Structures are given as structure tokens and as C-alpha cells.
Amino acid sequence: MxxxxxxxxxxxxxxxxxxxxxxxxxxAPAMGPALRGGALIIDAGHxxxxxxxxxxxxxLESQINLDVALKLEDVLAFYGVxxxxxxxxxxxxxxxxxxxxxxxxxxxxxxxxxMIRELGCGLLxxxxxxxxxxxxxxxxxxxxxxxxxxxxxxxxxxxALAAGLDPDNGRKAKPIPDSVYLLxxxxxxxxxxxxxxxxxxEEEALLRSDGYQRRLxxxxxxAILTAPGPTNEDxxx
Length: 237
Ligand SMILES: [Zn+2]
Known about the structure:
Oligomer: single chain
Structural class: alpha/beta
CATH architecture: 3-Layer(aba) Sandwich
Bound molecules: zinc ion
Radius of gyration: 17 Å
Helix content: 40-55%
Mean pLDDT: 88
Number of domains: 1
Strand order of the largest sheet: 2-1-3-6-4-5
């Protein structure tokens, strides 16, 4: 079973990461420029009582986020990179004392913020899924924090998602809205990846599937490892 998983992951890396490396025109270093400033932190959005968005077939965003985050960790291990995951289970990270759902959500976000600081963040990658009342809309989109280096990483990851996963996706990386707490309360480079729309029938089915999640993780891993760091962002290297 374990061997099968490894073989499947290796295939995913070859399919996703390999295509990306060809696109970059260079081999990925084990530790890319964006990761030289501290820990790579992966945040699977929501969890526990906060399920996030609900898909058109009733799947919870929180579970898909966690599935993608864990697969991303697996793919990164092939490159010798061990990220820090803020959660590895279906749980909310709120304090014991919080009672209402609102209190729990606020406490959860404050705890994520504290963990990110304590881990010595170099790059934060927050994984989410999008939703919209109109089911026509689809496509992964990357948002970036107002911190140094975030925009360059987001544009790099957005381009990789189009090149390695969905050539029809013409979406552009955008600044994170003020309403998103976590990315507005970190000091490190940070991006939020909306992997796709849970309200689009075709994309929702893909986002729930093991194979697509693995391809997504492979493309994200390749992009993270080759992302520009804050020191070379200005020179365009
Ligand atoms: Zn979300």
C-alpha cells in the first residue's frame, strides 16, 4: 500500500512538477529562494466546526483543504523539504474557553497567527477552496499578503497553476482583501491559494478526486520550490 502511494506520488511529481520544471527551464533546487528566510508553513484553511464553504454535492471545504495540504507535504518530502502544517486533522485550533462559533473562529485565527510567528515563518501558503452563487465560474486563483515578497510568489504560483494544471485559467494573482484576517496579520511572505470553485460542477468533482488533488499538490510544490525570494525580487532574477 505504501509502495503504491509512493509510486503514485512519484508519478504525480513527474506529471506536475516535471512539466513545471520544463516550463521554468531549470532544475528546482532543494530549497528555493522563497524558502531561505525561514520555515515553509502550510495552512489548511478552516477545520472542525468551521467547515468553510460547502460544495454542490455537500463536501466541506475544510476537508479538501486538509487533503491538499497533506498531499503537498508528501510531494515536498520528495525534494527533501519538510513544511510545518498548522493542522493535520479535522479540527479547529480555538482555545478551550471559547464558546460560540464566532468566538471559536476568532480564537482559531489568533492561534494560527501565533503559531506562524513562533515557527519563524519564511513563507506561508494558505490552502482554500472558492465558491460563488453562479456555477459558471471556475479556476484556481492566488492572493497575496501586503508583506515583502508575497506578490512575486503569488504571480509565480498563479502562472504555474495555469501552465501545469489548467491552461484555460486566465486568472491573475490579486492582493488579499482586508477582510481575510490571517494574511493581513503575518510578517512573512504569504499567499492564499483558492484551488478552485466548489460551486462549478466539473471543478468540484476534480477537487474532490484523489488524482486531481495530487496533481494540484505536485504543481504547487514545484512552484513553491522555484518561487522567487524577497532578496532577488527587485532584481527580477
Ligand atoms: Zn476558505
